[in-house]
Amino acid sequence: MAILILTMVLLDVLYTAVYLQSNSRSKIDYLYNSKDKNYDVIFLGSSRVNNHFVPKIFNDNGYKTYNFGITRSRLEESALMLKLMVERNYKIKTLILQVDLNINTNDHSEAIRSLFMPYLHQSKIIRNHYKSIPEYNKLLYIPFYRYMNYDARIGFREMYYSAIHKRTNVLDNDGFHPLTRNERPMVAADLSKYYPKKNVAYEEIKAICKKNNIRLLAITTPMCMSTINRDYFNHIKSVYPEIYNFENAVTDDKYFATCGHMNKEGAIEFTKVVFNAFFKPKSKP
């Protein structure tokens, strides 16, 4: 038993040491292992940010911009990322936050939560964020438990790639990941079971932005016109009137890879619409 416990402690120390020097595998390790960055605009949200906002369009107009959207993330993970940015002394003028399908739940993404776990012992921000979850004590106090529990995401394979600094493409294009394959025929998305409601993480994000003088632009993002129950987006406005409706900013099916995600051409068109709605060029493209 003593040998087993010692082995778990040593493995925990080894894995954590590797992740603490990794900044090229995910947007979370890039964020955690950085500080003192200055951005005119950042984007936060799920795949509907990751695949939909092209920072180059903002950058070409004189704005320093980065897309921190993460596929499968929810507002809870976006809130934690914003907390870490503030802790790391990021200077952010404007946050563009996707608030549409993710407003119908206060739940979390287990896959994305796992990516914060290597830093649980080192970060008070992360510990405080997760202190109320049922498995918190196991994750914090049992050596190596978090790496075994989330082996698929932060286990040996990911640790090894982090140790040899094998890059992924998630940080390319200032965080924008274009979709190039188009689903045809396109299957209509069904929002009939979605119900917008007050969201704890969104409220937290609003409070952080207010405290740190960050301009918050919460917006909905496009879905194909064949989406069932498009009235869902009107219900969002009834819950949070300050959210800007952009679900109809791009409507032609040629701009969609799937009903819920635009392709590269659609992302470019949509980003231009959002830029023109809220910003003016600082310099000529």
Question: Secondary-structure blueprint of this entry?
Answer:
Elements: H1 2-19, H2 27-32, E1 38-44, H3 47-50, H4 55-59, E2 65-67, H5 75-87, E3 91-98, H6 110-113, H7 124-130, H8 136-141, H9 145-149, H10 151-154, H11 156-163, H12 200-211, E4 215-219, H13 232-239, E5 256-258, E6 261-262, H14 264-278
Parallel strand pairs: 1-2, 1-3, 3-4
Antiparallel strand pairs: 5-6
Strand elements, count? 6
Strand arrangement within the widest β-sheet reads 2-1-3-4
Instruction: Indicate the radius of gyration in whole angstroms.
Output: 20 Å
User: Beta fraction of the residues?
Assistant: 5-15%
The largest sheet, given as strand count, sense and whether it forms a barrel, is: 4 strands, parallel
Globally, the shape reads globular
Mean pLDDT: 96
**Which structural class fits the helix and strand makeup?**
alpha/beta
Low-pLDDT segments: none
- The SSE string, one letter per element, is HHEHHEHEHHHHHHHEHEEH
Tally the helices.
14
Q: Specify the helix fraction band.
A: 40-55%
- Compute the separation of the termini in Å: 64 Å
